[in-house]
Amino acid sequence: MQEAFLHYLWKHKKFEALRLKTTQQQAVSIHSVGLHNNDSGPDFFNAKLVIGDQEWAGNVEIHVKSSDWYVHQHEVDTAYDNVILHVVWEDDAVIYRNDNTIIPTLELKYYTSNHLLSNYKQLLKSSSLRWINCEKNFADVDTFVFNNWIERLYFDRLEQKAITIQNLLQKTNYNWEAVLFKILAKSFGLKVNGDAFSSIASSFDFAIFRKLQSNPLQMEALIFGQSKLLHKDCQDPYFLSLSNAYNYLKCKYNICNEGVLPLKFFRLRPPNFPTIRLSQLVSLYANELNLFSKLMAINSIADFYKIFSVKTSKYWETHYSFESKSKSRVKITTKSFIDLLLINAIIPLKYCYSKHIGKAIDEDLINLISDIKSEKNSIINKYNSLKKDVSKSALQSQALLHLKTNYCELNKCLQCAIGNSLLSNN
Asked: What does the alpha-carbon distance between residue 178 and residue 168 come to, in Å, rounded to a whole number?
């Protein structure tokens, strides 16, 4: 038995609530179970109960055994002085208040159905062979319940991403253009070079980059120089042009790159080489002078594809590195790459900005993320094997990634709408 299950029972009144009696044989009537507290202190605040003939308003504490009250030393904690009911699975000790009056105790095991208890034990039954606890019944969850939970999970994931953006905003004194540049840089680096690209974007003032927007060569020189890609002996003419321009900019703006993380090329497909992605990032800003304002104003997936369809500079059409030439090829961002930019950078930023200005755009964001194809990875593939085509759009794939990390892996079935639904199934 887990205390979390008792929290679930009390919060949702999943017991025979009409015939409750305390272990002292006083009738209990619940007007309100109270507000669930996830921090320190009693488990439920401001409950409203009738115990015997007396109305009570106060807190409810929940334990597996009554004696846990003393194990947790609640008797010496004033935060528990206002507990009006002790809810337990097994009553193995009498609990007293500081004035020596007994705290009424409700023993839930006598009011919980065997069917619900069986479902609970089956759901959380330990097995190393199961990918997630509910995998056998995952496909059976009611469609309405499932879809509503998926949408909720997606916005929970947005909230998580919003925390990172909010921290960047505070560091930049709410310079939205600068924050856009930083999160775009990280996204252009993808998983392998995201942190390195982020360190590049943070190694100089974004105002410097804006001043260079009319000079793409200097923009590329600044980015490549800060990335330490120009710290080598190379006689390539374009390399020398970038190196000379960077040395000038480094002296003019007094910048350094000591804290920049090293870039990785190993096991990357050439189109994802950092040289290519950095050049595409530069091209994006060379094409768009007021990128943030433009992105905040549009919601059409086609408009986003148009803005983010950018090529490298001419040199990189025949190179992947400075060391050797390659077959000539226009290297332009693909739709799948742009989808990742939208998922990880643009939509979270639009969400933060809409909250900042007090404008409700949840429906627009749902429409936008629903127009993006589902991500493909081992987690999404596994969920699709449990429930056919469960992830058709990025809204669903993002929600499922959040579900796996924040619920399934932590065994938080009792806080999950899917787990709750399966517990209540006949």
From this structure: 9
Phi, psi of 289 (to 5 degrees): -80, -35
What are the structural domain ranges in the chain? 3-112, 172-370
Q: Which tokens go with 53?
A: 């003939």
Angle at 68 between CA 94 and CA 43, to 5 degrees: 100
**Structure confidence at residue 24 (pLDDT):** 92
Q: pTM for the complete prediction? A: 0.85
Give the helix ranges, DSSP H, for 202-322: 206-211, 216-226, 237-253, 274-287, 291-297, 301-308
pLDDT tens-digit profile of 397-407?
999 999 999 99
In this predicted structure, what is the pLDDT of residue 425? 73
**Spatial CA neighbour of 286 closest among 225, 215, 200:** 215
Residue 352's Cβ-count burial label (10 Å; 0-12, 13-18, 19+) is buried
**At 426, is the pLDDT very low, low, confident or very high (cuts 50, 70, 90)?**
low
Q: CA–CA distance from 19 to each of 16, 30, 111, 139, 344 (Å)?
A: 6, 11, 8, 36, 51
